[in-house]
Design goal:
The N and C termini lie far apart (38 Å). The chain is elongated, with a radius of gyration of 19 Å. The protein is built from four helices and twelve strands. By secondary structure, the chain is α+β, with helices and mostly antiparallel strands.
Length: 182
């Protein structure tokens, strides 16, 4: 069974895709009708990469070598054989492997007692107090909040979230206000 489709992998591939070069960018977008469950997916050179596992809104989940990857529909171009990603297969697989390694490292660091920093590493935003099915429970200056696993990464200074201190505090306050109002 394929591993869960990871938002981290999607973010990494979405970042890598523009690096594919102008030739791939000049190609015509893949027709929406070709982005259907079960369709084979190719790389920019026509080499088979995987197959579409699910389409949901603007996102397409692709199964690649038993792993999952979620990319936006605009990451596809019209290839000679069918929908193609705007990168060579080797780069797609390398990005997917790196994302898996990063997720494993985050899982190892994400445990009760771990300090969580802002994206720039400048501020300690809270401490992990517990793990929950939805992610990690953080004790913060604004109270406890549960953050999804996908919000974390390992920085040079340790476990961090993908926002700066101001964005984090604004998000926590907005979540608190919504919870009180809802």
């Amino acid at each position: 069974m394929p591993k869960l489709f990871g938002p981290i992998a999607a973010l990494c591939l979405a970042t890598a895709i523009p690096l594919a070069g102008q030739a791939a960018q000049a190609q015509e977008a893949a027709p929406a009708a070709s982005l259907v469950t079960g369709a084979k997916v190719y790389d920019q050179n026509g080499e088979e990469v995987g197959q579409i596992a699910k389409v949901s809104g603007d996102r397409v989940a692709v199964s690649i070598d038993g792993n999952g990857l979620v990319v936006p529909k605009n990451a596809f171009v019209k290839g000679a054989k069918g929908p193609a990603l705007k990168a060579p297969k080797a780069k797609i697989v390398a990005v997917l492997r790196q994302a898996e390694a990063d997720a494993t490292a985050v899982d190892g660091a994400l445990k009760p007692g771990a300090e969580v920093r802002s994206a720039d590493g400048a501020a300690v935003l809270g401490k992990v107090t517990a793990m929950a099915p939805q992610g990690a429970v953080l004790a913060t200056s604004e109270g406890n909040i549960t953050m999804p696993r996908a919000a974390f990464f390992l920085s040079a200074k340790g476990l961090a979230v993908k926002v700066d201190e101001r964005q984090f505090l604004a998000g926590v306050r907005a979540a608190r206000a919504q919870k009180k109002g809802g």
